[in-house]
Amino acid sequence: MSFDLAQLTSWNAPWKGVKVAVFGAGASGFSVADTLQELECKVLLVAQEVANDHKNMLDVLGIDYLEAGEEETIKKFADFQPDFLVVAPGIRQSNPVLLWANEQGIPVMGDIELAWRLKDKSHAEVPWVLITGTNGKTTTTELIEHVLNSLGYPAVACGNYGRPILDVVRLPEQVSCYVVEISSFQLHWINTRPEAQISPYASVCLNVAEDHVDWHGSFENYKSDKAKVYSNTSRVCIYNKADPVTIQMVEDADVVEGARAIGFTLGAPAPGELGIIEDMLVDRAFVEDPHNTAVTVIEIPDLEKTGLVTPHNISNTLAAVAVARSFGIKAENIAEALESFRISPHRQERVATIDEVLFVNDSKATNAHAAGAALASYESVVWILGGLLKGQDISELVKKYSERLRAVIFIGREKSQLRQIFERHAPSIPQVEVETNETELIMAKAVSEAKRFAKPGDVVLMAPAAASMDQFKDYAERGDFFRKAVRELEGN
Fold it and tell me: Where in the sequence is the domain holding 61, given as residue range(s)?
């Protein structure tokens, strides 16, 4: 029988013997290979590097794998003659291996599409909630998972955050909802074929700002991929009323008939929206008479211990509440669940107050939009920033928040670009460059310099507006070193 990808839309489809190339390792690549092996496909995984623990498991499972560069990968895949290829999220669409696959007419998909094809293994009717945005995805995903689980709706966070999605669709235990954080990379590879159009129960886009332009090729391409989150939504499309891009995305989306557009705002909500009245989170969307009534979900002071009281996290909370309310959950029950939530590390984490100076770890702020949300939360800041800018120009960010800055401390290997931006747009702000590239010393020097400039009432904010991989393993390691440096300063 000749290969027909259109037939492969069920766990019980004729997968046996299908030849699949997996390009890229990591958690998702290993999960893809493991799943396809269970389906009795012929699998070949190739990556530039495969972690030792994954090598051991691949050996146990009997899955062929190879560590190779692009030229050798193309040769190996050409010899293998795959029926289709599954690509890891971070690999650029312009990668020579993917260009070769396109030239050869080999279909390419990501793990999200593969999971949609296989969703009937255990839980065919479980609703999917897709969450994306330039910033706030993980916090919102965590919030939705926490609220649903707290109230007896077994939910699992997966995708770009949490467990690999293919591990989740194979879970034997009861699940009521897949809470899928989905990045722009993953969105690029969904809905490419008519037989595998993902149709989420609810979809959320928190915000859209310039990011990953180097991967997508342009901001327009980035926005176009983000917009795919709303496609085929069956129940609610949740958007940010303060973000014109998300509004346009919802207006342009092709959704299932009857799906509703629900906005959230930090202002007073109109009918059909969630928002803020005085110090209260209020719902005017999921009530019987939204034109004349509203329901209070929670008072903002009751969120103080959660770490959610900054403006952008209030927005994230409103989006999460909208999802919970779409499931018919009562406002008072949502409030109880929210009060027990605690925000994850590295997201505007208040590390310590030393000599009346607050030290805040926002290492997760890997782009200008996220750093801007952090800067907007404080009046007087000594800002630690820098790393891999990913093609961003942070000039507008500097101009917008320059009056709040006491001093700036540059880290990372693109310091010269940062220096030029500040000299052009905020020349009066003191600048310090951390010269060392030794991972163990970077944050100690940055924190020490920041403390030298800070005055009582100031905030030393580590919100780099850049990726971390030039000097650290990831944003978490960067945040851990910042926290360690602050603790050591506190102990002196």
Answer: 18-109
